[in-house]
Amino acid sequence: VPESQYGTYVWPCAVVLAQYLWAHRRSLPGKRVLEIGAGVSLPGVVAARCGARVILSDSEELPQCLQRCRSSCLMNRLPHVPVLGLTWGRVSPELLSLAPIDIILGSDVFFDPKDFEDILTTIYFLLEKNPQAQFWTAYQVRSADWSIEALLYKWNLKSIHIPLHSFGADKEHLASSSLPGRHTIEMMIISLAQSEGT
Known about the structure:
By secondary structure, this protein is an alpha/beta fold. The protein has six helices and seven strands. The termini are far apart. InterPro entries: Methyltransf_16, SAM-dependent_MTases_sf. Interacts with HSPA5, HSP90B1, TUBULIN, UGGT1 and UGGT2. Interacts with TET3. Interacts with STPG4.
C-alpha cells in the first residue's frame, strides 16, 4: 500500500497491526475478517490483499469515514470489499445480520476512554456470536491512568499481550509519526475468557 496515498492519516497503530497481519499472512486466506473503526483501513486492506474475506466498518454517523474506507478499497483494487456503518455499543440490524467472522481488527480504537465500554459491548456481542473468533488490536497508551484490563475482566474477556519485537514491529521507522509525544504501542489479542465447551 503506497504510503503517499494515505498522507498523514495512517496512525502508528495501523502500521503495527498491518505488520502483524503481514507476519501471519499465511494463515489469512479464506479467513473472515471484520475491521471496526476502519478509517483508511490499512489493516483491512492488507488482510484482503493476503486473501482474507474482509468487511470494513466505521461509525454509521460518520459518512466521511465510510467514504474513506471505500476510497482505500478502490485505490487498492479491492472494489468488492463491503463497507458497513456500525456504531459501537449499538446493536443494529447491520450488526445482527453480520455473517460469521474469525478475526475482528481494531487499530487504535481505544482512543477515548468514554468509548471503551461501547467498543467492548460490540466486541463481546461479536465474540459471543463467534466464540472461536479473536479481536486483534493495537493501541497507543496515552495515559498511565487507564487500563482496559479491568473492563476486559468485567466483560468476561481475556487478553494475550503480543510483544512488538515478536513480529518485527519494534523498529523506530515502522511506527514513526509526526504526532507529538513518545508512542507506546501495545498489541493484544482479545477473546472470550471461557467459551462454551472448553
